Amino acid sequence: MDLYDNSMVAFKIGHSNNNQLVFDTLEEAIKNNPKAKPLIHSDRGYQYTSYGFKRMLELQGMTQSMSRPGKCIDNCPMESFLVR
């Protein structure tokens, strides 16, 4: 989600929140916005702390941000987007 205008940059739906789903979603976001160098915010799930995810961000020149431990409010924009 782009927090500037609340538009969806990319999304994928799967049966499991696994590395492949996260990688595919990031690849779609990159394809849709090839020149963007955004700050990517996530929770601390294993998908977002994996070497593969960090490497994808590094190769694209993107900066990673993670929520603070025990502070779910950090993820509020994305986790509440359906409520709007």
UniProtKB/TrEMBL annotation:
Q: Which residues form the Integrase catalytic domain?
A: 1-84
Q: Which InterPro entries match?
A: Integrase_cat-core, RNaseH-like_sf, RNaseH_sf, Transposase_IS3/IS150/IS904
Give the organism, scientific name: [Clostridium] ultunense Esp
Entry's Gene Ontology BP terms: DNA integration
A molecular function annotated in GO for this UniProt entry is: nucleic acid binding
Pfam families in alphabetical order: rve
Protein name per the record: Transposase
